[in-house]
Structure formats: C-alpha cells, structure tokens
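Please decode residue identities from the backbone states below.
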C-alpha cells in the first residue's frame, strides 16, 4: 500500500501529526493502565505508583502494567496508524521488509559487541558534563530525573529465576526494540529524511530525539551514539530489522548481565563505567569503523552476498 508523495503533507506537518497522535495514544494508554491497576490492586496502589512509593507489594506488577499499556503498546500503535492510515505508505515509513544480505546481522552483532568501550567512554564524558552556574536548578532536576529513572529500572529488572530473566529478555529486549525502532528509525527518521533531504542529518536528529525520549540526561551521549548506529543500519540496508536486531542485542545484553550479577554468577557490576582503558577505546573505535565500512559495502550491493 502506498500513496503519491506529492499528495502527502509537508514533513513538518507529518511530524506534528505523529507527535500529537503518539501523545494522545500514550495518554489514553496511561488512563487504561491506571484503571487496570486500580481494578486489580485498588486506588492506593495507583497513588503509590504516582508517588513512586515502591514499598507497596503490588508496585512492581503495577509498574509493568503501566509500562506496557501506557508506553510500549501506544508507541507501536501510533507508528502503525500513522504509516498505514495517515500517510498510507507503510513500507516507506516502517521499512518492515525482510530483505537484506544474510551477513548483515552477523556484522551488526560484532559492531554491538565491540562498541562497549566507546559506549563507556561516552558515558564517562557525559557524567562529567556540568551546566553553567545559572542553570543549577536545571542540573538538579536532570540529576533527580536520572536517579528516578535508575530506581525504576532497578525495580523492573529484579530477576531471581531464569524464567523471569527470559520474560524480561522478551519484553525489555525484543518488544522494546521493535516498538522503538518502528517509531524512531521507521517513522521519525523517514520524516526527517524527507524534511532535511539529507539522510545523515535525519539520522543524527532522530538519534538525539531517541536519546531525549528516554529522559536519562547523563546517559544522553551513549544512547545517541547507539541511535546513530541504528540509523545507519537502516539507511544502508533499507530494512528496519537490522536496527531491531542491534537494539535487541544492546537491551538483551543489559538484561542478561544484570541477571548474572544479581545472582552472583559474575562479579562485574553492569553499572560500572570504568571497565576498559584508553587502549580499548582506540581499538574499539577502529574495529567499529571497519565493521561499519564492511556493513555499508555489503548492504549497498558493492559485494554480492546471499539475501534473506
């Protein structure tokens, strides 16, 4: 299903429509999620969640309900509605076709594996960034938001059994990767590509929005870096599934390492940002750049490879 590009709205209007649609569905989802929690666990649990009182015995389950009903589902629903019924061009805006060289997922795996030192150094730089004195209030708010997000993440990623780990791997790893990639590398990146007429600008703008969306300001640079990687994976391959795979590897690794650390299977704290040295940072940069060059060469057909 497609439509004539000349008859589509200007990309700036598309962006406003998509943002309005997404926030509207998220708001409706929050009301539905809160109603479900209230029916199951009572008004007090809803109030406790609003106040982040995690001592409530039903807080964790309630948080998961709100997360899925008010965020995860609305994001994918808004992307599908926009692509199928508003612009009526799903392949162009979602890029959901499984058609890319078979070697690309392998390269993506090694890019994500070897990029860990780069993510660490960007995180360390980010943590040391200080706003001007007159923005002290903003800095405190950013730190409080970061600490709050960290607290929620720690609660949601409590895993005592393999089954609980596998469930989090499915929801946090795979489902989150799919819905966020459809939204950002699918709809939003396509809109900004049309708007700027420059795929590189679209990738970086989308990556910045992707990082800001998570409201974790002291993790802005590493998440933006990931968004840039995901963006180029899609632009070069033409398929959203290469970035979904990369996103899943990133999120899934966090889930697995957190589970192993919580259950004392490994001693490396997943929150530790001082694992690598400067030699590792340089080596990581060289390997990632080489792998990205290889990915681009294969994805753009300069080397003939079997296609999925």
């Amino acid at each position: 299903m497609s439509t004539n590009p000349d008859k589509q709205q200007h990309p700036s209007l598309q962006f406003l429509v998509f943002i309005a649609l997404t926030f509207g569905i998220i708001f409706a989802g929050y009301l539905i999620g809160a109603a479900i929690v209230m029916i199951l666990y009572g008004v007090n649990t809803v109030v406790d969640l609003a106040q982040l009182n995690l001592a409530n015995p039903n807080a964790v389950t309630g948080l998961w309900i709100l997360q899925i009903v008010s965020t995860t589902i609305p994001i994918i629903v808004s992307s599908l509605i926009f692509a199928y019924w508003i612009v009526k061009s799903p392949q162009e805006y979602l890029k959901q076709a499984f058609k890319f060289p078979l070697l690309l997922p392998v390269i993506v795996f090694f890019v994500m594996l070897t990029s860990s030192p780069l993510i660490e150094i960007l995180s360390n730089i980010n943590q040391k960034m200080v706003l001007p004195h007159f923005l002290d209030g903003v800095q405190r708010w950013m730190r409080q938001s970061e600490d709050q997000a960290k607290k929620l993440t720690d609660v949601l990623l409590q895993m005592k059994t393999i089954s609980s780990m596998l469930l989090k791997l499915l929801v946090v790893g795979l489902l989150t990767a799919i819905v966020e990639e459809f939204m950002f590398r699918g709809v939003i990146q396509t809109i900004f590509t049309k708007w700027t007429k420059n795929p590189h600008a679209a990738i970086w703008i989308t990556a910045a929005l992707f990082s800001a969306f998570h409201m974790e300001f002291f993790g802005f640079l590493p998440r933006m870096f990931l968004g840039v990687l995901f963006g180029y994976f899609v632009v070069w391959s033409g398929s959203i599934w290469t970035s979904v795979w990369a996103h899943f590897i990133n999120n899934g690794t966090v889930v697995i390492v957190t589970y192993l650390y919580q259950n004392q299977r490994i001693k490396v704290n997943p929150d530790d940002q001082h694992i690598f040295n400067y030699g590792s940072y340089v080596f990581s940069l060289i390997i990632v750049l080489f792998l990205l060059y290889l990915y681009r060469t294969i994805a753009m057909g300069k080397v003939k490879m079997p296609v999925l």
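Observation: The first helix runs from residue 11 to 41.
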